[in-house]
Amino acid sequence: MYVRAADRLPLQFNAAEWFIGRHAAEGRGSRTAIIDEEGSLSYGLLDEAVRRFARVLRDAGVRRDERVAFVAPDSRWLSIGFWGAIAAGAVAVPVNTLLTASDFRSVLEDCGARVTVVDPQIVDPAALSSIDTEVWTVDDMRKRLEGAAAQPAYAATHRDAMAFFLYSSGTTGEPKGVVHLQHDMWICCETYGTSVLEIRPDDRCFSVAKLFFAYGLGNAQYFPFHVGAAAVLFAGRPTPAAVFDVVRTHRPTLFFGVPTAFANMLSAIEDGAAADFTSVRTCVSAGESLPAAILERWRARTGTDILDGIGSTEICHIFLTNRRGDIRPGSSGKPVAGYELDIVDESGRPVETGQMGDLIVRGDSTMALYWNKHEATKSALNGDWIRTGDKYTRDADGYYVHGGRSDDMIKAGGIWVSPVEVEAALIRHPSVLECAVIAIEDEDGLHKPHAYVVLQPGVRADEMITFELREFVRGMLAPYKCPKSIRVVDELPKTATGKLKRFELRKRAGSRE
Ligand code: 3UK
After folding, report:
1. Which residue, judged by its Cα, is nearest atom 13 of ligand 1?
2. Which CATH class is domain 5-394?
3. In which residue ranges of the chain is pLDDT below 50?
């Protein structure tokens, strides 16, 4: 059951060589690897660019295991950078482009990036001057590539060497660097990629979730590159109109979204927008649970199914999912072959069928550690097993149903929002005495962050103050973290020891809807 790299891969294994170099070496160099706004790029040219970038990094003094970070939109340049760093034996760190300058600084500082490649439209290199990293713009990267010779071979890395980090938000909002090894992406391909996606060389993959998310990285890089298929990369904001346009133009066969994206596309379609998903063999949803109603409306409107599956940055990709011909709407389906799952109580014992417990997973794509976070690593990992932080039940037929998080973390639009981080921003405003942030379901059954605020004595509870608070947090937080509403209340529910009862607040909000 449990697919282990140690049983199947040689000791020496370089992920970039497997996913890129292998295709060029085995005569598939003329196949299309990437389709982006600049046109299509073959595996042969991608292999050449990746080995050139590896050489550029080595010439710039980047050594084995050193980190190379990227703050750039989805395009061939991000792909060349990611695989080029791995080809050099360095560690690629694609960073969430939606963050603020101060978030970028803490990520770059934490990973100790030796070189950082940035798109100046996303972050001004000057904003990173306090960090000990060499900053190149994407243009600098292109220029360096033009003059470079290609490194003849991919670095002879160990299958258990570090390959990439992805930063995932923690409960306090402080991002945690999830460390993945050379073999992890290969495991995802041999499990979910093969048995659920059934990805083929003639597939074209398009992901609404960007490459800096663990979800997007698999969807539009290593799944297609495992079999010599093509990735469609789109740099812009994935509004329904933009997504429909990409789908119409590039005719993807596998489409990956998050529930909010499917909901937004549905309202556009229901408002009369033209969308043609006839090229798509399968749609996939992950990031948060897909409400059954959205799946049913999507089927009715487009004639395609959506496979809801749960993955995590820590486990690299999806380990529990619905399948073609075996979809139970509102459930996360059944375990992916190659992973073992259990639902356990507080003492770690498996719960009875139908009982809610904590989901734990055993699979060889699981992270090695959280970078610089020894305590968090130990509380997440236990031997081969990892605690996902999700509550689940399993029914008599073996389908798993998501029962929420065991922490207070919010998934909005498939992206983490830490209530603690949003509260910490609100509380800085001099008019705020205390506050709480919770997720409330919208009309589509999707979670969005909302804030409850107790004002300082003497502050008038009017529209001016909520407007002012909204503007205030906007200046401090990435836009997707800003609460959808700010409601002034007289007091917040607390335990006897004064701890905020977010659960109570959620219950009240639920009964008011
Ligand atoms: C939640 C879901 C219910 C769940 C991800 C696919 O989302 C991904 O990774 P993250 O690290 O978040 C992981 C957490 O998100 N979640 C994700 N998918 C579902 N809850 N139903 C779902 N289908 O709380 C999980 O622990 O951002 C998704 C592939 C790779 C990924 N990293």
Report:
1. 312
2. alpha beta
3. none
